[in-house]
Amino acid sequence: MKQQHQMLSKKATCNSHGQDSSYFLGWQEYEKNPYDESTNPNGIIQMGLAENQLSFDLIESWLAHNPDTVGLKRDDVSVFRELALFQDYHGMPCFKNALAKFMSEIRGNKVRFDPKNLVLTAGATSANETLMFCLAEPGEAFLLPIPYYPGFDRDLKWRTGVEIVPIHCSSSKGFQITETALEEAYRCAQKRKLKVKGVLITNPSNPLGTTTSRTELDLLLRFISAKGIHLISDEIYSGTVFTSPSFISIAEALMELKDSEKVRDRVHIVYSLSKDLGLPGFRVGAIYSDNGAVVAAATKMSSFGLVSSHTQYLLSELLSDKKFTSNYIAENRKRLQERHNMLVTGLRNAGIGTLTSNAGLFCWVDMRHLLCSKTFEGEMKLWKKILFEVGLNISPGSSCHCTEPGWFRMCFANMTQETLTLSMQRLRAFVDSADQTPTCRNLIGGSKKLSLSSRVFRLLSSNREVEPER
Amino acid sequence: MTQNRFNLQDSEREEDDSSNSVSSSNNSGAAGMRIIVPLQGVVQGRGGLVLGSVIPCALFYFLQLYLKRNRSPSPSPPPSSPSPSSTQLSELSGIPRSLSRSHLSPRGSTGPTYVSNRASSITKSGDSPYYVGLNKVDGDQYDALENPDGVIQLGLAENKLSLDLVRDWFADHLKDSLIIESGSDLSISGIATYQPFDGLMEMKMAMAGFMSQVMQAPSSFNPSQIVLTSGATAAIEILTFCLADPGNAFLVPSPYYPGFDRDIKWRTGVELVPVPCRSTDNFNLSIAALDRAYSQTKKRGIKVRAVLITNPSNPVGNLLNRDTLYSLLDFAREKNIHIISDEIFAGSVHGSEKFVSMAEILDSEGFDRSRVHIIHGLSKDLSLPGFRVGVIYSYNEIVQAAATKLARFSPISAPTQRLLISMLSDEKFIKKYIEINKDRLRKMYAAFVNGLEELDIKCMKSSGGFYCWADMSKLIRSYSEKGELDLWNKLLKEAKINVTPGSSCHCIEPGWFRCCFTTLTENDIPVVMERIRKVSESCKSRH
């Protein structure tokens, strides 16, 4: 086996794809014992997957009413041949046009996107990695506000060799980005002899579920202008903003910035249809940039992850239907808001608070008061209790690099209303019973062999693939 | 990365747009200071080694003068080379070079940080002969009725001969292949939600069955050894990431597919070391040459990780016979390296020889399988490049696991999988398709080769793939790469035919050209031949 290892690349045999072990345990347990309403009512409920399953019916109904598109016909003529041969990495013009308009629509048409500045990639995962390849050399760094999506450790660092330096955001400031934190992060990178190439934010944020405020956006633009670095705004949740404050895209902030010409070249947006349309299986992502060199390079790089022509065609028809898109955006937001409120109320009834959020498919939940010790060991113990005793797979804050123990991310859009209700009941029951047993005990049935440090990214990979945790 | 080391040493030059950059695979004539003898080195992008003698400089200046005199309208700028349905993206020639970043930003270079070397290097690779050709076709594509004087595209490996069969199957079996399934209710959740990044199991099973059929393998392929990716381009890059570290090398028999230079080297930092094959051997691989290349590479302090073969080969179209495959396996075992067998044209065999896959050899003999990896896909054998279906078939569990994880960056689309599963599983249809396709390939190949024969242009005997490997050395004035590129230019500008010059494929013998015959109809062939004849005559009259 060791000899085999030596024959392969470091990338294949190391584990810097950042698979968190405790995380991994959660998924494993879920797959061993998945909840099912009828066949397995005591199973584990999956609350760690940020998928939007609330509005499939809208898409299904559109497909049912558009059999021609599904049958690969346009005006009664088969487009099969054109699709079969189309592999131009510039992307299908009709799809890019439709996507650019859709992106505008989500932003209330306050900004317009030029399809020529759009690069299509097979999912936002691919888009983020491609941008890293285009903007940074191996060994250089990007600043990311914590907590952040655990997948970034893999997507941004693995093959690119780029480093991530965290920007510390604290709960006392609502996890918002401050100037001090930015400067501190920059200094920290310099101390580590890392050249900072840019800042990457997720707006709306994963795992926080909040939109980035105007103040923060302006601050970021000033910061990158002063330092001469890039800014990537991952806006894949932009269509999931269900209540005020309304979403402000970096594009909008840029528009209203004085002397925006100086920084325009260094601001890039990542988008995807996986969250807003609930179509992660379609693998559609995009990079938007005013920087011609980035667009040119990313376009060529996209040949390693082109979007299937078939998929582009289907979606170009779907997104060109203005009636459909405006109805979908509104209805989807409504449903997300209802579901979000359900979760927040349910948690409140169990005496658990959440960070006030207005977007996303999840809530950032405050369980600090349930920790037996205000440490990450305490967080892990609590997480395991919730996994094994309560039967909920949620994401611990440590996996998102949160520096304060006790925060968890819980998803609400990937299950039925009944399931969500049940999960709240279980949690309530757990909290009520926990009140009566104040001392901390080791988990029954939990593995004691697992190491419980907060940085748990360096363990052996296994053949089981952990699903993306967006 | 070794690539970067060279780049940083290059002096920074202003871009010279007026130069017709036929002879330079990097961005500008001005960078021609780096054009050294042999020119082959430039095309391969090793031009950073300036020999520093007066002769190359003088040669360059004369070349510039000559080119300026014969200059035709300059091609459109590098970044914008759109082409509706083309394999341009797989056919870059030459290694892209890096330039000073200050030349890249369209808005001037006020800031220090713009793009990475990796990005800047690729944006400047647009002026290679290959792109020039594509641009010419793009604006002016030949059509028998609408544009009879347009440029005929013989540089792209698209098989248009049998697409009608696939299209008709879909038309007839729409219900089976609809993206919606599950009884009478429409249900999208099956494909819309997150799927395994390396593909649906049903699709893997369908592909395994398909591969068995097209390769006519005695035993079946194992679906759990398959990792699906968005096209074979992605498959080969992912495999490279798994098998080699930056600075390592693969040995590749040349001439080889020009796209490898980008697909394999660009982001991985892995080198390609060509192992020249000769016309006297029918461009077949010689193990002795492989061994020599291995030793030479080792002497340079570079670690060889794998041999990359394409079988049937591109551009020549040879099939590797059993003996060669056995010898390769022995060689790999002896040197403790991998074998990557790119079998993407396995189902496009039109000659009388039978195709033998690596899988077949491994099935029957007791070789160490963990070092063998096969690439396949639907872009060639089923004429579906747009759907992005590539396969990594590996016998090595660690590679399978790593590739599965890496597939997230190049994933295959779920609705497209759903569309294809039932067709791939229709054994009767696939059998019929293979037979008819083979027949059409054979006929078109014969017609094309005979047409060239009549012009006294011989083609290397080829048994598979979409190309004729034609020897036009008699038509070139100086037996050199420059002579070859001159002829290529002539064919493009005068005859309005885009073919791929052998130098783009790293062929060491000048004068060979790769012509794809599968985008043509029977009626187009006489048109093509007539145009070539005119150029051929004008070349001969000058000798």
Question: TL;DR?
Answer:
The complex is a heterodimer of chains A (470) and B (543). Chain A has 470 residues and is an alpha/beta fold.
Structure characteristics:
heterodimer, A: 470 residues, alpha/beta, seven-stranded mixed β-sheet, four-stranded antiparallel β-sheet, disordered C terminus, B: 543 residues, 13 strands, 39% helix, disordered N terminus
Q: N-to-C terminal Cα separation of chain B, in Å? A: 46 Å
Number of helices of chain A: 18
- Note the beta-strand portion of chain A: 5-15%
| Net shape of chain B | globular
Question: Given the structure, what is the number of helices of chain B?
Answer: 19
**How much helix, percentage-wise, in residues of chain B?**
25-40%
Helix content of chain A: 40-55%
> What is the average of the pLDDT values of chain B?
80
How many whole angstroms does the radius of gyration of chain B measure?
A: 23 Å
Question: Multimeric state of these chains?
Answer: heterodimer
Percentage of residues in DSSP E strands of chain B: 5-15%
Please describe the biggest sheet of chain A, giving its number of strands, its sense, and whether it closes into a barrel: 7 strands, mixed
Structural classification of chain A: alpha/beta
Major sheet size, sense and barrel closure of chain B: 7 strands, mixed
Please provide the count of β strands of chain A: 15
| Computed Rg of chain A | 22 Å
